[in-house]
Amino acid sequence: MGKGVAIEPTSGRVVSPVNGTVTVAFKTKHAIGLVSDSGAEILIHVGIDTVQLEGKHFVSHVKQGDQVKKGDLLVEFDIEEIKKAGYQVVTPIIVTNSSNYTEVNATKNNSVKEQETLLSLKLFNSESD
After folding, report:
1. Which domain does 121 fall in, by range?
2. CA dihedral (17, 23, 24, 29) positive or negative
3. Which of 35, 37, 45, 76 could disulfide-link to 31, CB 3.0 to 4.6 Å?
4. Pairing state of beta strands 41-45 and 31-36?
5. If we measure between CA atoms, which residue out of 21, 45, 20 comes closest to residue 31?
6. Is 57 designated active site?
7. 89: Cα separation from own chain's centroid
8. Cβ atoms within 10 Å, residue 37
9. How far apart are CA 81 and CA 9, in angstroms?
10. pLDDT tens-digit series, residues 15-29
C-alpha cells in the first residue's frame, strides 16, 4: 500500500494532517482517503478490521470531495466501545503514492499530539507535506 506510520490513538478524533481534498469517505466511517494540495495521497484507517463494525462507534464529519485544512476534524470514534467490541484501535496513516517520494520518514518515535507532524516527505530533492 505504501509507507507510513501507525499510532495508538489516545483520543477518538482524526484530524486532517494536510490541506487537501477528501478523495474517499468510506460508508463505514472507519477510513478516509485524502490527497494533499501538493499531491500526497494519504489513507487513514482507524483500527484493525473495524470495517466489520459497519460504522458503529464512528461519526464522520466530511464527505468525498470536501476541501479540508490541516487540523480539520474528519472522524470521531469511541475508543472504549471499539475495544469492547473486540477490535484494536491502532491507526495506520499510509502515503499510498509513497513511490513518488525519495523519502517518507516518521518525525517522532513515541507519542504525538493532535496536529503534530507525523511524517516528512521528500519529493525529488524538495520538501513536501
Report:
1. 3-127
2. positive
3. 45
4. antiparallel
5. 45
6. no
7. 12
8. 13
9. 14
10. 999 999 999 999 999
What letters, b where the CB count within 10 A reaches 16 and e where it falls short, cover 70-85?
eebebbbbebeebeee
pLDDT grade for 125, boundaries at 50, 70 and 90: low
Check residue 110 and give its pLDDT. Answer: 62
Residue 44 CA to residue 35 CA, distance in Å, equals: 11
Strand order across the 41-45 sheet: 3-7, 91-95, 41-45, 31-36, 20-25, 67-68
pTM of the entire predicted model: 0.88
Q: How far apart are CA 75 and CA 50, in angstroms?
A: 14
Number of folded domains that form the chain: 1
pLDDT band at 102 (very low <50, low <70, confident <90, very high): confident
C-beta of residue 128 within 8 angstroms of C-beta of residue 35: no
- Can you say whether residue 23 is alpha, beta or left, with left for phi > 0 and alpha for psi between -120 and 50 degrees? alpha
Question: Per the residue annotation, which of 30, 45, 57, 61 is the catalytic one?
Answer: 45
Within 10 A of 58 (CB to CB), how many other CB atoms are there?
Answer: 23
